[in-house]
Amino acid sequence: MGLLALALGGFGIGLTEFVIAGLLPQVSRSLNVSTAAAGWLISGYALTVAVGAIGVTAATAGLPRKPVLVGLVALFVAGNLLCAIAPNYPTMLLGRVVAALCHGTFFGIGSLVARRLVPPERASRAVAMMFAGLTVANVLGVPFGALVGERWGWRATFWAITATGAVALAAIAVLVPGWAGRVSGGAGGLRAQLRSFRSTQVWLTLTATALGYGGMFGAFSYLAYTFTEVTGFSTTDVAWLLVVYGTGLVVGNIAGGRGADHNRDVTLIVSLIGLAATLTAFGLLASSRPASVILVFLLGVFGFATVPGMITRVTDAAGGVPLAASANVSASNVGNAVGAWLGGLVISAGWGYTGPLFVGAGVVGVGVGVMGWAAWAARAAGAAGATAPTEDTVAQRS
Questions:
Q1: For residue 161, what pLDDT band results from cuts at 50, 70 and 90?
Q2: Please, what is the Cα angle at 285 between 282 and 291, to 5 degrees?
Q3: Which residue, 47, 151, 344, 359, shows the most beta carbons closer than 10 Å to its own?
């Protein structure tokens, strides 16, 4: 039940991240701002996640994790409440920033708490369970926001997200056991957490995460244009195509968690190879509607299959400190931003709307090399992908 509570928190956070995309026209008209200014409600959120994941985790170093999780969800509720009642654009943007501050740290600390709720051999599946809320939110977020916003106005959407957050807060407070959030040994102190970044394995895993996400989201950012300008789908088709992609995320999350518990490094390398191959095939076959539907599903599957394994790998390499897990969230957001920038560059250079797919494949290809290097180095050191037993593993054995 504790895992379900964490998944509900992930679902609420995922909703607030994705739902705004379907509400931008309404919000810009209501608050009397330009489309470009309204776009900062998305990019400002992402930048806050990238920075906040490190800063908030460092600020809470050494504190018991369950109270921190409850506080983070309370912050999430406050931010979305601000959005719901925002009388003007600055207040709305402030609400988005406040809500985003909890994002990276929630998934970073939550992944460690989730691992302690199950036996060590099910660690990646536990992380996948927590992230299941995020993947389901990806599927439902945009259509949910558009439906509620169209029927009752965009503020109603944020009231619904605020209510979801309140339920998640209560569920975590009641269902997550206190022992799962205890900080053992000296792993909680900020100095100890920073020392964990001396590990080459930590940096290789963070780099592979950024490259994998960068390649996928660099292509994903422009998929709507690929579908309409290359494949020939109508603009109304894009919504259900994104649901197909989101369904792939859910499948990939589950499969990736199971695979990582069986053989983590092999699962990560195979997933990245599959992602690079999918992006390449998509670029070559983008003019085919049947192929595009299949490939956008596989894009979601291979793209998210790496998430549970990357989280457990980086935290194992860092000795179980939450700062490493939060850094992984930051790395993915940095990858998203750089990938989208590269995709825009190649479109501007005249490569067309299939250009980001090929560039994305190349970026992920580099990620395959980095992940292969990390796996080889870990095996050579006799570590099998981890440099030290984590505090969570120790807790399970004791």
A1: very high
A2: 80
A3: 359
305 pLDDT exceeds 80?
yes
- For the four alpha carbons of 136, 46, 217 and 333, in that order, the dihedral sign comes to negative
Whether the per-residue pLDDT at 146 is higher than 80: the answer is no
3-state secondary structure the chain: CHHHHHHHHHHHHHHHHHHHHHCHHHHHHHHCCCHHHHHHHHHHHHHHHHHHHHHHHHHCCCCCHHHHHHHHHHHHHHHHHHHHHCCCHHHHHHHHHHHHCCHHHHHHHHHHHHHHCCCHHHHHHHHHHHHHHHHHHHHHHHHHHHHHHHHHCHHHHHHHHHHHHHHHHHHHHHHCCHHHHCCCCCCCCHHHHHHHHHCHHHHHHHHHHHHHHHHHHHHHCCHHHHHHHHHCCCCCHHHHHHHHHHHHHHHHHHHHHHHHHHHHHHHHHHHHHHHHHHHHHHHHHCCCHHHHHHHHHHHHHHHHCCHHHHHHHHHHHCCCCHHHHHHHHHHHHHHHHHHHHHHHHHHHCCCCCCHHHHHHHHHHHHHHHHHHHHHHHHHHCCCCCCCCCCHHHHHHHC
Contacts of 74 (CB under 8 A, 6+ apart): 169
> Each residue of 296-324: b (16+ CB within 10 Å) or e?
bbbbbbbbbbbbbbbbbbbbbbbbbbbbb
* Residue 272: predicted pLDDT: 97
| 186 pLDDT above the threshold of 50 | no
In which residue are the tokens 């990939």 written? 252
The SS3 call for residue 183 is: coil
Q: Rounded to an integer, what distance in angstroms lies between the CA atom of residue 330 and that of residue 365?
A: 21
Distance CA 188, CA 286 (A): 48
Average pLDDT of 296-311? 92
Q: Residue 150: CB partners within 8 Å, gap ≥ 6?
A: none
